[in-house]
Amino acid sequence: MSEPADLTTWSGESAPETVDVVLLAGGRISGFFARAAGTRIKALVPVDGEPVVRRVARALAATERIGRVVAVGPDEVRDALGDLCLWQAETGSAPGNLRAGLERLTGAARVLVCASDVAVLDPGALADFLRRAPAEADVCLPAVRKEAFVRTFPGDLGIYVRLADGAFTAGSECLIRPDVFARNEELFRRLFDRRKDQLAMAATLGRRLVWRLVTGRLTVAELETRLSELTGCRCRAVLDCRPELAFDLDSVLDLRYIKGWLERQPGSPAENGHR
Predict the structure, then answer these.
(1) 25: three-class secondary structure by DSSP
(2) What are the pLDDT digits (tens) for 109-127?
(3) How far apart, in whole angstroms, are the C-alpha atoms of residue 240 and residue 225?
(4) What backbone phi and psi angles, to 5 degrees, belong to 20?
(5) E strand map for 19-160
(6) For 8-93, where are the alpha helices, taking DSSP H only?
């Protein structure tokens, strides 16, 4: 008699947990970036001949244990996605869009929140994050080490947080329980507004963390503990995630970089000499 199938999962349940997704696609861009991209809607920035949000939606659909996916954004995003996923009208703010997406996904135990500009999101990288996210955690964020990011994307000017444990960049995904966001929406809003400013984000968490960050003594464990205290839930970083989770399009330089990066990949037309 054959052995029974191994149903052990990262959720700790007897069968694989299905994770629904809110795909945030309401961001806008301006200036030189918008002119180079030919659009003011970040989700519609073209990458390798198609809107980046379509690349992200396909990667999500190809990832193990991903269930429903709802994109929240303007009508143009709905038109670009077609039947790749569900769609929900935007509200005018990122926290409002997240709330609208979560309300659409009723009954979900944990939801993956994903940016729409993760240009080379890889199903294997995402599945690895989901498998290693602690079952008991209420909020999980992927953390990518600088060394790994530089190996995959050499020459890119990434943004890193320098901690006692090393230098990290965060993925553009977050695994959360919907009720955690409902109880902490104002804190999520403040952190989102300050996401590009390390000191401002640390200040949101308290002056002591600012000092420890500046002096290079702040640890991942301290960040987890402080966020858990502020939110009243269990917050965890998933270390050593793959770099594909963290490359997003914040500027025309990012767009130019990823165009060249894709052309250098094995099997690309440029790599085969067909430009």
Answers:
(1) coil
(2) 999 999 999 999 999 999 9
(3) 19
(4) -85, 165
(5) 19-24, 46-47, 50-51, 66-73, 86-89, 111-115, 139-145
(6) 31-37, 52-61, 75-81
CA 163/CA 158 separation, integer angstroms: 15
Cα-Cα-Cα-Cα torsion 184, 186, 187, 189, nearest 10 degrees, comes to 120
N residues, the chain: 275
Nearest to 176 by CA among 226, 105, 113: 113
Q: Side chain identity at 59, as an amino acid letter?
A: A
104 within 8 A of 56, measured Cβ to Cβ: no
Can you list the domains of the chain with their CATH numbers? 19-263 (3.90.550.10)
Cα-only R_g, the chain: 19
- Among 82, 85, 77, 76, which residue's Cα sits nearest to residue 21? 85
Is pLDDT of 159 > 90?
no
Taking the C-alpha atoms of residue 167 and residue 145, their distance in angstroms, rounded to an integer, is 6
The pTM (predicted TM-score) of the whole model is: 0.88
Residue 227 backbone dihedrals phi, psi, to 5 degrees: -65, -40
Which is nearest to 21 in space by CA: 52, 75, 59, 78? Answer: 59
